[in-house]
Amino acid sequence: MPEEELFKTEEQRTRAGIADTLEAAAAEIREGTVDLESPTQAQRVTLPEAPTFEVELERLTDSETGAERYELEYEIRWTR
Fold this sequence. Notes:
Blueprint: H1 15-31, E1 33-37, E2 42-46, E3 52-61, E4 68-77
Antiparallel strand pairs: 1-2, 3-4
């Protein structure tokens, strides 16, 4: 099945700003409807009662410089 990107935003924020966004998202997830918004996009999604929840922490190392980059991802998945 081909992937279709429906919404994406990426920006640098403070830890406090990220926490505020996640807290607001948690309240929406609890209610079952999440509104995703950026300056150029908006998307509303309804979540099922019991989706799959994944947490992933990755460490990537640049082969040339040896610099390490980390990615912490929270993912919610379901099938319709």
